[in-house]
Design brief:
The complex is a heterodimer of chains A (1013) and B (202).
Chain A (H helix, E strand, L loop, with lengths): L13 E10 L2 E7 L3 H7 L6 E2 L6 E2 L12 E6 L2 E7 L10 E4 L13 H4 L8 H5 L7 H11 L14 E13 L3 H12 L4 E4 L16 E2 L2 E2 H13 L4 E4 L2 E7 L3 E7 L16 E13 L3 E3 L12 E3 H9 L8 E6 L5 H9 L3 E7 L7 H8 L4 E3 L1 E7 L6 E6 L12 E4 L2 E5 L2 E3 L2 H5 L4 E4 L4 E4 L6 E3 L9 H18 L13 E2 L33 E3 L4 E2 H9 L5 H8 L12 H12 L3 H4 L13 H5 L16 H6 L3 E5 L2 E6 L7 H14 L2 E4 L4 E6 L3 H8 L12 E7 L5 E11 L2 E6 L4 H15 L6 E4 L4 E7 L3 H8 L14 E7 L2 E7 L7 E7 L3 H11 L6 E2 L2 H10 L47 E8 L11 E3 L10 E11 L4 E9 L8 E5 L5 E7 L9 H4 L1
Chain B lengths: L15 H4 L9 E5 L4 E7 L4 H11 L10 E3 L4 E6 L2 E6 L7 H7 L5 E5 L4 E7 L3 H6 L16 E6 L2 E7 L6 E7 H15 L4 E3 L2
Parallel strand pairs in B: 1-11
Antiparallel strand pairs in B: 1-7, 2-5, 2-6, 3-4, 4-5, 7-10, 8-9, 9-10
The chains are: A alpha+beta (1013), B alpha+beta (202).
Chain lengths: 1013, 202
């Protein structure tokens, strides 16, 4: 059965494709081409929501992005979106939509009591009421949070996928109405790379709502279809429909959100097609052709369901074949709204009256209405409305000559629809976001774009030109100019499309004037004493609220906005801002431009959070860097630790072991027999050039010129400020060739640091740096049996202590693979680091593991490595240092040259560096050997009663050491080295106190015999 | 000679050969790993006649001097990476170039470093290859800006890469990425290309 208010013919819907959907639990029918709003209206449903503050019944007020009332929750469970505009939701089979902001139902909402009590909830209510006593705010807040907010959040993780992409074009045309189409055609024909974006599912813009206009001798929509076909045939033009250009940022960077699947039933969505796509676009030129939005009138109780914009009535009739009512009153201040009256009259809607604020109604459309015999009440106003869930009558009263008041008792006119027009506002949002100027146009009483701040132009209604002919020619010119400005040499020109109105010669060029600007329509009672003149329906802000704010002393429109919340919320005041500004200007008796405008903020309409994340979620949130041996570690059951983006084995638990047990076993194995670890992540920088040694001499604190080829040396690198930045072993591969290693997490910053010095400070040095971190896989073996194992794997390297001493390297073959073996140690035990080409890393690891079985070879992870090095008092940059620690603080004076210059040297001689109370690295031994201090724990000299105690330092590293058979810790303590043996205390969060004493930082094998053996 | 079977490419864990199709069908994007490429990183002063001619004597072609351009050498593809930095990329079976370059450049201010072991190469081609790359990189890959024969260092998703657009009618790119990022990047690109249909090729 066709819906009651659907016309039998006409409109851009497909009557052969019925669609069934659910609204508030009830099933309705619509057609393909409908929006949720048009389908609801076709079914006679006007009441769709409750207002934000007063919970007043609200209906559909518009047919586009400006909708402030009909905010809908679509979907359920995890797949749900709040605050969607019913006017922009394409109808799709199985759509489940529901009203928001009402409980238990939209028909009966208990919070309507707020409406009755509205005198008690003036503007600034929260600020005034909930501030005292401050201690109660937490209680208030819970109640407010419950009552406030629009819509519901999804109940689970979003099951849909989202996409984002960068894009580039010569010319972006925003809006595919007549202006935008003409611009895209002229720019596209000239050969420019064009993107045409349109928020609607289909092209045409305002033409979709025009029944009679002709362009280039054909019906307007046929011209649109031809334009689309031509544009689609150009491979330099991309058309993005269902795409909201939501933000205009610096340097012609534009944000667009494309909706790819919401209009498809769940079953018809291609499984790999993302739901929404974010376009991060750089356009050389932008043509803003975003049209205009009709402005409502501010009159008493102007918010009832059934009161909507006159242009919306035309759209529902002409585009969707829907009668928005049966008996209409048109309420206008201009000639343009008469088009709605004429269209409705033609469609069989009874026009009860046209109430016109103008003292004398005139204009081309007005005359047509007069000729059609429609009843025009000029010099009149609607001073009151009646009807709860739908408007049912209006009170029409003659205005005083000045329009400030209404005379005597008026006429009661029954109706179920009020079509309102207060003029038009160009959609200047993008222009304003781009920091373009906004000017007030006295003729049309609206804000129009002034000078552009970026490479953009506005054209058509968006620039304040309301006639179709002007839109087409401006669009055409803007497209051509933009292509030229983008540097495109035009292939062909073409001419601007020509418009005509067959019903009225010259009518294609008409605008909506003449008009009378009466910003606040008087009611039958004084303002604020019964009847609400809504300015902002989404935020329930009335003219009385604005007046109250002004009476209370607010002056700046930005303050008035924040205090009253007018123009805020999801619609950002698309229909309310200009009325609010005008009412403020009237109150002060100053011109509108003096009041100014509030900031137009992106996004134009809300953007789904999902598109900002795109596919960078879950596993793809951040790269997981893996070494060539990673799969083997996984196979061995390793638990991984994140080191920067690297995944490093943390420990390798055996069945039934916890972390503590596994780490103890690994640590013991390295001291007792043989451990093996994957050290491939260490940063490696290849340094070549005749000045390579000199370069190292300058960037490290110690001396490098005399290092022999074949030898290695530990180096400490400082920043300009003298603070430790990185450390590592560097080897001399040739006279002019070195290989530097850096800490795993610091490889890139160190390379950048070195390049900066090379390029900016010492360009005279002949040195080239190349990152080779990943060229090699590194297997580190450690323990008393390390030499024996290596001997079994190589036959061309003499491993004797004399031939291959500590801190040297040798080339050879290990397990048949060409290798460079370094005899260096971070564990303090006999240790070799074997480097092979990365693609052989897994093979080497397997060979080492197999050959090492007889020594019970034990793979160990970063945790065991940390314990082993802490037993030896070796620092980890970034753990035992924090950017405020010098080598002297670390007790590493031995590595700081007194005889040469190096980066950071001068900073070490600042007076502050000599202070005896600088934090110094020392060891800590707890009185109870089994107690392990938490890392980061603060230390004090004595326990006070209160919570503030003088802190003398903190723990940087702390472990249980199986080799020392007790806990060990490293700490930065004020004047630490002078405190040897002193007792310090560490108060814990649970109230317990750990007592410890200051010790030397080397806990194991203080003579270092194991390393050198 | 070391046994080749001991080698593993960075993407070996993805078992790509088992997914490889002979025909790409209507897939908008084809992807493949190009394992074990030799890459020699070459640094030197292009204004030095000695440097340029020594490089040419080994490479069999002039080093490309135009920013972000590639050139074909005798055994290697030459990629411009910076005003004083190039890559010479060759297949595994070709004779190694590094030692020859080192010999030719000895005594000069230049550096020659093997880096191929540290990189993986992912080939991305097909009608939607550019759409796919655009999702992860701010560069404009349009023909008018990034014509066949172009190369560039940039980021793809969150990995630093070198792009090389091949001389091919179908948009075809080779993306060099450090091996540790290869699995991440492969999965990212395959996911990004999903809507166009992906074929893994050998």
């Amino acid at each position: 059965m066709p819906a009651r208010f659907r016309l039998t013919e006409g409109g851009r819907i497909d009557r052969s494709k019925p669609i069934s959907f659910t609204f508030n639990g009830k099933v309705y029918q619509g057609f393909e081409g409908d929006t949720l709003a048009s389908a609801l209206l076709a079914n006679g449903v006007h009441l769709v929501g409750r207002s934000f503050k007063y919970h007043r019944p609200r209906g559909i007020m518009s047919a586009g992005a400006e909708e402030a009332n009909a905010l809908i929750q679509v979907g359920e469970g995890a797949r749900t979106d709040p605050n969607l505009r019913a006017t922009q939701i394409e109808l799709v089979d199985g759509l489940k939509a529901a009203s928001q902001n009402c409980w238990p139902s939209v028909e009966f909402d208990v919070s309507i009591v707020n409406n009755i009590a509205s005198r008690l909830i003036p503007s600034g209510f929260y600020y005034k009421t909930f501030m005292w006593p401050a201690s109660l705010w937490m209680t208030y807040e819970k109640i407010i949070r419950n009552a406030a907010g629009l819509g519901k959040a999804p109940e689970g993780p979003d099951p849909d996928s989202y996409d984002k992409t960068f894009a580039h074009c010569d010319v972006l045309v925003v809006g595919a109405g007549p202006t935008g189409l003409a611009a895209a055609l002229s720019a596209g024909r000239s050969g420019a790379r064009v993107i045409l974006s349109e928020q609607d599912a289909t092209l045409g813009g305002s033409l979709l709502s025009e029944p009679d206009l002709q362009i280039d001798g054909q019906p307007a929509l046929e011209w649109v279809a031809a334009a689309r076909a031509e544009l689609e045939g150009l491979d330099n033009v991309r058309i993005l429909t269902r795409t909201q250009t939501y933000g205009y940022f610096d340097h012609n960077f534009i944000g667009l959100m494309e909706n790819l699947t919401d209009h498809l039933p769940q079953s018809a969505k291609p499984p790999k097609l993302p739901r929404h796509r974010l376009w991060k676009l750089r356009a050389k030129q932008v043509v803003i052709a975003t049209g205009a939005i009709e402005r409502p009138l501010v009159f008493s109780d102007n918010d009832r369901p059934g009161i909507m914009l006159a242009s919306a009535c035309r759209t529902y009739l002409n585009r969707f074949g829907v009668k928005p009512g049966s008996k209409a009153v048109v309420f206008t201040n201009n000639d343009g709204a008469y088009a709605a009256a004429l269209d409705m009259h033609k469609a069989g809607i009874q026009i009860a009256a046209i109430v016109d604020l103008r003292a004398y109604a005139e204009g081309p459309l007005t005359e047509q209405a007069r000729d059609a015999g429609l009843r025009i009440l000029d010099g009149h106003a609607i001073t009151a409305t009646a009807g709860d869930k739908r408007v049912k009558a209006v009170q029409v009263t003659r205005l005083s000559d000045d329009g400030e008041s209404a005379k005597a008792v008026g006429e009661h006119i029954e109706c179920d629809l009020v079509a309102v027009s207060g003029g038009w506002n160009p959609t200047v949002h993008l222009h304003s976001q781009s920091r373009g100027k906004i000017l007030f146009d006295e003729t049309y009483a609206c804000f129009v774009p002034g000078d552009s701040a970026q490479a953009s132009t506005t054209a058509g209604a968006c620039s304040g030109s309301f006639g179709l002919g002007a839109c087409l020619s401006q669009g055409h010119d803007a497209g051509l100019a933009a292509a030229k400005a983008a540097g495109v040499k035009s292939r062909k020109k073409g001419s601007a499309p020509q418009a005509e109105d067959p019903n009225a010669p010259g009518g294609a060029d008409r605008d909506f004037l003449p008009a009378r600007w009466l910003w606040l329509v008087p009611g039958d009672k004084p303002l604020g004493h019964g009847g609400k003149h809504f300015v902002d329906v989404q935020n329930d802000v009335t003219a009385a609220d604005l007046h109250l704010a002004l009476r209370e002393g607010y002056r700046s429109i930005e303050h008035v906005k924040r205090y009253t919340t007018t123009g805020m919320g999801t619609d950002q005041g698309k229909t309310s801002n200009v009325n609010a500004i005008a009412i403020v200007s009237q109150y002060f008796g100053c011109p509108i431009p003096d009041v100014g405008v509030t900031t137009f903020r992106p996004p134009y309409t809300p953007v789904t959070f999902g598109v900002f994340a795109g596919r960078d979620i879950g596993d793809l949130l951040d790269p997981a860097r893996k070494t060539p041996m990673h799969a083997l570690h996984e196979h061995a059951g390793a638990t991984f630790e994140d080191v920067g983006q690297w995944k490093r084995p943390w420990y390798f638990p055996h069945e039934g072991e916890d972390m503590h047990q596994a780490v103890n076993r690994e640590v013991r194995a390295c001291r007792e027999s043989l451990g093996v670890m994957d050290a491939s992540t260490l940063g490696k920088i290849d340094i070549q050039g005749k000045d390579a040694a000199e370069f190292l001499n300058r960037v490290y604190t110690n001396a490098w010129l005399k290092l022999k080829v074949g030898a290695c040396r530990y180096g400490l690198m400082l920043g300009e400020n003298g603070m430790v930045m990185d450390d590592g072993v560097t080897s001399r591969l040739g006279e002019n060739h070195f290989l530097m290693t850096t800490t795993s997490g610091n490889a890139a910053p160190v390379l950048a640091h070195l390049e900066e010095y090379l390029q900016t400070e010492w360009p005279e040095l002949e040195v080239y740096l190349t990152s080779v971190t990943e060229q090699f896989a590194t297997v580190s073996i450690a323990g008393p049996n390390a030499r024996k194992l290596l001997a079994e794997l190589t036959d061309d390297i003499d491993l004797s202590a004399e031939a291959f001493p500590f801190m040297t390297w040798r080339n050879g073959r290990v397990a048949g693979i060409p290798a460079r073996v370094f005899r260096i140690s971070f564990t303090g035990d006999l240790s070799y680091e074997i480097n092979v080409p990365a693609s052989y890393g897994a093979a080497l690891w397997q060979a080492v593991m197999t050959t090492g079985e007889k020594y019970a070879i034990t793979p160990y992870g970063t945790e065991a490595m940390h314990v082993l090095r802490a037993e030896k008092g070796f620092i980890i940059v970034g753990q035992d240092t924090d950017g405020s620690v010098t080598p002297i603080d670390l007790g590493m004076d031995w590595i700081v040259s007194k005889t040469k210059d190096f980066v950071g040297r001068r900073s070490l001689y600042r007076s502050d560096m000599d202070k005896p109370d600088r934090k110094q690295l020392v060891g800590l031994l707890t009185d109870a050997p089994d107690t392990v201090l938490p890392e980061g724990a603060q230390l004090v000299e004595k326990i006070e009663s209160g919570p503030t105690m003088a802190m003398v330092g903190h723990v940087t590293s702390s472990y249980h050491s199986p080799n020392c058979e007790r806990s060990i810790a490293m700490a930065l303590i004020k004047g630490g080295r002078a405190r040897m043996g002193q007792k310090l205390y560490s108060p814990q969060a649970d109230g317990k106190v750990i007592t410890c004493s200051v010790s030397d930082v080397v806990f194991y094998d203080k003579e270092g015999e194991r390393t050198r053996g | 000679m070391v046994e080749a079977y001991l080698r593993q490419s960075p993407l070996s864990q993805l078992a790509l050969p088992s997914r490889a199709a002979d025909e790409t069908g209507d897939a908008g994007v084809s992807m493949a790993e190009r394992p074990f490429r030799r890459i020699v990183n070459l640094r030197g002063n292009p204004k030095s006649e000695a440097f340029v001619s020594a490089a040419k004597s080994v490479l069999g072609a002039e080093l490309p001097l135009a920013p972000n351009s590639a050139a074909a050498g005798k055994d290697a593809t030459l990629l411009w990476l910076g005003p004083d930095e190039w890559w010479a990329v060759s297949e595994d079976e070709t004779p190694p170039l590094a030692d020859k370059l080192r010999d030719a450049l000895s005594g000069q201010h230049a550096s020659v470093t093997d880096v191929g072991e540290g990189y993986s190469c992912i080939a991305v081609s097909g009608p939607n290859a550019i759409d796919t790359l655009a999702k992860g990189c701010t560069l404009d890959f349009h023909d008018s800006v990034f014509a066949p024969g172009s190369c560039a260092q940039s980021d793809m998703a969150k990995a630093a890469v070198v792009f090389h657009r091949l001389e091919d009618e179908t948009p075809s790119f080779e993306i060099y990425v450090r091996s540790s990022f290869a699995e991440y990047l492969w999965r990212w690109i395959e996911d990004a290309a999903g809507e166009y249909g992906v074929a893994v090729t050998g």
